[in-house]
Amino acid sequence: MELKIAYRMLLFPIQMFYHIVRASLLSLLPSSKKDLSKEVVLITGGGRGIGSHLAKEFAKQGAKKVILWGRTEKCLKKTAEEISLSGSDCCYFVCDVANRDEVYKQAKVVREKVGDVTILVNNAAVVHGKGLMDSDDDALLKTQHINTLGQFWTTKAFLPRMLELQHGHVVCINSILSQSPIPGAIDYCTSKASSLAFMESLTLGLLDCPGVSCTTVLPFHTNTEMFRGMRVRFPQLFPPLKPEVVAQKTVDAVRTNKAFLYLPWTMRVLVILKSFMPQVALEEIHRFSGSYTCMNTFKGRT
Ligand SMILES: NC(=O)c1ccc[n+]([C@@H]2O[C@H](COP(=O)([O-])OP(=O)(O)OC[C@H]3O[C@@H](n4cnc5c(N)ncnc54)[C@H](OP(=O)(O)O)[C@@H]3O)[C@@H](O)[C@H]2O)c1
Predict the structure, then answer these.
(1) Is residue 197 part of a domain?
(2) Pocket of ligand 1 contains residue 47 by CB under 6 Å
(3) 110 to 38, 170, 206, 254, 263: CA distances (angstroms)
(4) Which residues are catalytic?
(5) Where in the numbering of this chain does the Ketoreductase domain appear (predicted)?
(6) What letters, b where the CB count within 10 A reaches 16 and e where it falls short, cover 95-133?
(7) Is residue 149 assigned to a domain?
(8) pLDDT tens per residue, range 98-140
C-alpha cells in the first residue's frame, strides 16, 4: 500500500509536466471540432444581446435545433424568425430563469414538445449597476436570483437527462468581472463570482461522467446594451468585444471541448497579476485603467 502511494507521488509531477506540455502543444495545433448536427441547444436570454448571436452561431454551425428562453416575447420571436428564415430549426418559450417553478415547468414542456436538450447555454443575466449602499435590497436579490440561482434551476432541469444519455454540454457565459470585480456593479460581480464557483465545481464534479462536458466563457466588456454608458479610460487599447465574436468563439470552444475561455485571452494576465501582486499595486492598476470609475457613467439597458 505504502509502495503504491510512493509510486503515485513520484508519478504525480511527471503527469503534471506531461499534461502542461501536451496542452501547450495542442493549443498550437488546429483541434478537431465536434459535429453539432444532432445537438438540441437551449439558450437562456436567447432573444437579444450575446444570446441572440449565440443562437444564430449555433444554427449557422449546424445545430439540429435551437431553443430560446427569455422574458421578452417580442425579442425571442424576432430572433427565432431570423434563424428560421435562414433555414434552421428554432423555437422559443417565455421563461424567467429566476422563477424555479417556471423553469421546471417549461423544461418539461421543452422535453415534450421539442425533445432532449443536449447543450444548455446559461447566458441570461442582468446588472443593477450600483454600489451596495445605493442599491435597494430587491434589486440586489434579483441579480443573484437571475445570474446565479437561475443556473442552478436550469442545470438541475436538463443535466440529469444528459447524464442518462451520456451526452451533453453545459455552457456558462460568465464575465471577467467574476475574477476582477469593479466598484459600482457589486450585485453583478458577486453573482458572476458565485456563478464561476458553480461552474468550477460542476466541471470537476462531471470528471467521471463520460460524454458530458462544461465550458465557461469569461468575456471582457462586450458591445451590447447591458453595460450601456460604461466608460473605459483607454477605449482604443481595450475596445469592447463584438457580441458576434463572443458567440463565434463560444461555439468553437464548445465544439473543441474547452473548459474555460477568456476573451480576449490577454485577460488571463489580469488573473495571474492578481495572484501575486500587492493590493496597493492592484489598486494603482484599477486607478490607471479607469476601471475604478468606469461605472460612474453607467446607464444600462433602457
Ligand atoms: N455585455 C457585456 O459587457 C458582457 C461582458 C461579459 C459577460 N457578459 C455576459 O454575457 C451574457 C449576456 O449578456 P448581454 O451583454 O447579451 O446582455 P443583454 O443584452 O442585456 O442580454 C441579457 C439577456 O438575458 C435575458 N434575461 C435577463 N433576465 C432574464 C430572466 N430572468 N430570465 C430569462 N432571461 C433573462 C434578457 O432577455 P429578457 O430581458 O427578455 O428576459 C436578454 O436576452 C450575460 O451573462 C452577461 O453577464 C456580458
Answers:
(1) yes
(2) yes
(3) 16, 17, 24, 22, 31
(4) 188
(5) 39-221
(6) bbbbbbebbeebbeebeeeeeebbbbbbbbbbbbbbeee
(7) yes
(8) 999 999 999 999 999 999 999 999 999 999 999 999 999 999 9
CATH number, domain with residue 57? 3.40.50.720
d(Cα 193, Cα 198) in Å, to the nearest integer? 9
Total domains in the fold of the chain: 1
Omega of the bond leading into 264 within 30 degrees of 0 (cis): yes
264 lies in some domain: yes
Domain that holds residue 272: 35-289
Half-sphere exposure of 56 (CA within 13 A, CB side): 20
In a domain, 9, yes or no: no
Please give the Cα distance from 91 to 42 (Å, whole number). Answer: 10
Pocket test for ligand 1, best of 224, 245, 267, 270 (most atoms within 8 A of CB): 224
CA–CA distance, 60 with 248 (Å, rounded to integer): 10
Q: For 54-80, how does the pLDDT look when each residue is reduced to its tens digit (9 = 90+)?
A: 999 999 999 999 999 999 999 999 999
Query: For residue 140, how far is the Cα from the chain centroid?
Result: 20
Q: Which phi and psi (to 5°) does residue 237 adopt?
A: -80, -40
